[in-house]
Specification:
Oligomer: single chain
Strand content: 5-15%
Low-confidence stretches: none
Keywords: Membrane, Transmembrane, Transmembrane helix
Pfam families: DUF8028 (PF26071)
InterPro entries: DUF8028 (IPR058341)
Largest sheet: 2 strands, antiparallel
Number of helices: 2
Structural class: mainly alpha
Shape: elongated
Radius of gyration: 18 Å
Helix content: 55-70%
Strand order of the largest sheet: 1-2
Length: about 70
């Protein structure tokens, strides 16, 4: 963020935001995705592919949390 001065006040530029429907989708994905991760854990992590699937779900969940964190505000 690069600050700039207007009218003797310091204003900080906001980073670009996602459109409302994308933000809503990311929010609800972040809410529901842990149930998928629980399903993978319940089936067991016996193979490298299952570890990869679980890790991918966790990474996707974190990305969805970041993208949808200010939904509804």
């Amino acid at each position: 963020m690069s600050p700039f001065i207007t009218d003797d006040r310091l204003t900080v530029a906001k980073p670009p935001s996602l459109p409302g429907p994308l933000k809503a989708g990311a929010f609800w994905t972040a809410v529901l995705m842990p149930f998928l991760a629980l399903g993978v854990l319940a089936s067991g992590l016996g193979s490298p592919l299952e570890y990869l699937a679980f890790t991918a779900l966790l990474v996707a969940n974190v990305l969805a949390l970041v993208a949808g964190h200010d939904y509804g505000q």
